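Box 3.1 A note on notation
Throughout this textbook, protein chains are presented in two layers. The first layer is the amino acid sequence; the second is a token string describing backbone geometry. Keep the layers aligned when reading.
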Amino acid sequence: MRLDMSEVRQLHLNPKAFRKMHNLRFLEVHGCWNDNKVHGFEVLKSDFSELRYLRWDGYSAKSLPPNFNPKNLVALYMHSSNKQNLVNLKHIDLSYSKHLRSVPDLSLIPNLESLILEGCTNLHLSFSSNHNVNKLVLLNLRECKNLNRLSIGTHWKYLRKLILSNCSNLKTVSYIPHTVEELYVDGTAIKELPPLKDLSKLEILNLKDCSRLVSLPESTCELKSLRQVILSNCSNLKTIPYIPCAVEELYLDGTAIKELSSLDHLFRLVKLSLKNCLRLESLPEVFFHISSYSKMVVFRWNCNKRITVIRAPVQTSNIGLKNCSRLESLPESICELKSLQSLSLSDCSKLDRLPNSLGDLKALETLEVDGIAIRELPSSITVKRRYFLLRSSPPRACICYPGSKIPEWFSFKSTGFEVKLPAGWLNDNLVGFTLCAAASFRDYQELGTFKVRFRLLVNEDIVSSGDLFHYNGHEVIESDHVYVGYDYGIMSTELLTLSLNSEGHIVFFVEHGSENSIDFSKVKKCGVRLLYAKDNYMGADAKVDRDQRLRPIAGACIWKYRRDQ
């Protein structure tokens, strides 16, 4: 579509204009050089998702339409003889315009504050001629894979956040303005950084997955505002310079370091990750006395060396020793870490015993012991506590099939949306719940997505909640469906603190709608079966009929996932 405005005085657009032009690929507006003749374009409802070419000489609006999402845009031209036409434009976001090859001359937008070109994989970009972007605060070029060099001048006086993540061909960054507070260069091909000594405001330095990086500038030690240093998987990095004392998080996972210099000056350190530092043989003695300021320390380390002693700062809340293949035992002193919340010992294949007092750590919430040689847990870990500790990835599953009848083996059923739990339901042997609800697809099919959800309420307070089923599709399914599932996530650690006489009930509901509008509706029926560690009841009918469960029925599906996905 080409609009010639040279013979037109004014054009007022209805907000719904262009809405039915789903396949509009070419839009050119000219003849607006000296006047704002077109009104209302910036409030149009259309997203212009199929647009390939946009040219608008003399565009004078302050912004593009709110839903503007030209994911197939190849060319964008907004030339103007009057530079003031774009003087008020502050934000440009053309994320994931995979066919976009160039952007307008940014010198025409002197007040631009944020430029987001994330995922523009075919973009060829040069800032050499754009000397008038000195008000730019955010530059996001994440996944601009054609970018191999970035030239930024000293005139960029306000840039605070520079994102170059996963620009996999980027080899050189010649200059970084001294105003930058967050620098993301992770996943690039750089071998070295420019001097950093003038970056007095830098707080975050992310160099994760920079496999070609061989060293950090010595000037790193002068960065007094630096809080987070991420060097994970910099596999050729063998040494690190002195770490500034304000650092709170230090990630050295997968590096080639053989030794770690003194860390006793890091009095604010709360996270230290040394996973897969297979060449690291020991930690400095002073490490175990740091963090007098911190309330929490997260410590990660695994190696293939023989470990005889493991110590950590008393404030440590999270210890990960996954894949320590020669770790044979944990010292009793680990039970002195009263703040310890999580202990991961997965795949420590020679670990055959745990400290007897481990279960006395009241703050401990997660214990990961899969892949170790131990045969039984210490007696201090009670049956009830065992099911809370050993749930690093809580299992969840659901089967969905046509129908509206709650199976007979559900002990507690309701024709409404709520099941009241019986007296004495909360005891030391409780390990979970099997849940069931009946609802209809057809009531929500036009919306394309809905969730069957539940909440566990104890003494009228919400203790935990989750999804029994999540549907995201557009198929027309006419019948009611039954959802039977299990979600260990419902077993909140808060249950440990509650009285055994507490009243409880589980409510079910349907959540449906879009991102901008969410509604809630009741289910038709529901049921609950309590699961106990010492449950000898095996109902003969505790199953869905084989023919109904296995018959290929339209709309039937099995849904399961891990919480960390």
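The mean pLDDT is 77. The radius of gyration is 30 Å.
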